[in-house]
Amino acid sequence: LRRRIGMVEPGLGRRFYPEQRVIDVVLTGVAGTILLPDEPLQDDVTKAFQLLGQVGLGDFALRTFVSLSEGERARALLARGLMNEAPLILFDEPAAGLDLAGRELLLSTIATVVAERPRLATVTVTHHIEELPETTTHALLLREGRVVAQGPVAEVLRDAELSECFGLPLRVEEFAGRRFVRAAH
């Protein structure tokens, strides 16, 4: 199952060793491990370099992973998640800890990657609606383990449903395919 699901979550980045290079971290996505089990195949190395280029980190491949900013690490983990060509990628709070620029660059990169792979399914877990990529089609709102709403984004990410989910009067605004939430006045 691990080979059929790509995983992108910031906490994973803390498990790599200080000496691991960015290219090594991306290559661990082949088997879903932290260390490379064997000498990587040349095709995998070539693919890893290509993926790093796609996420805007082509020039960072030989740097150590720990030397990257949080936003760069997030994009490297995205490349890692794509490495095994899994049909599903799980994003668990992918923008956690990122500043505004890092978040927006990551979300833009995710949108581009998803658009280039129309058969790729993604699931994003987040508490921040504005962190959902514009490619998000469906949503599931949970409160205390109970389903509050589920279905197409336009039917779920609305004022009433989000207010019930978070227990606070909220207002949803949409801009360029993304939704933003603020307290209702």
Give an overview in words.
This protein has 6 helices and 7 strands. The chain has 185 residues and is of the alpha/beta class. The longest helix has 17 residues, at 100-116. The strands form 3 sheets. A 3-stranded parallel beta sheet has the order 1-2-3. A two-stranded antiparallel sheet has the order 4-5. Strands 6-7 form a two-stranded antiparallel ribbon.
TL;DR of this structure?
This protein has 185 residues and is an alpha/beta fold. Helix content is 33%, strand content 21%. The protein has helices spanning 22-27, 42-54, 70-82, 100-116, 153-156, 159-166; strands at 5-8, 88-92, 121-125, 138-143, 146-152, 170-175, 178-183.
The whole-number mean of residue pLDDT values reads 93
Strand content: 15-25%
Shape designation: elongated
SSE run: EHHHEHEEEHHEE
Please identify the structural class as seen in this structure. alpha/beta
Helix content: 25-40%
| Count of beta strands | 7
Sheet bearing the most strands, described?
3 strands, parallel
Question: What oligomeric state do the depicted chains represent?
Answer: single chain
Biggest sheet strand order reads: 1-2-3
What's the helix count?
Answer: 6
Low-confidence stretches: none
Radius of gyration: 17 Å
Distance from first to last alpha carbon: 46 Å
How are the secondary structure elements laid out?
Blueprint: E1 5-8, H1 22-27, H2 42-54, H3 70-82, E2 88-92, H4 100-116, E3 121-125, E4 138-143, E5 146-152, H5 153-156, H6 159-166, E6 170-175, E7 178-183
Helix pairs in contact: 2-3, 3-4
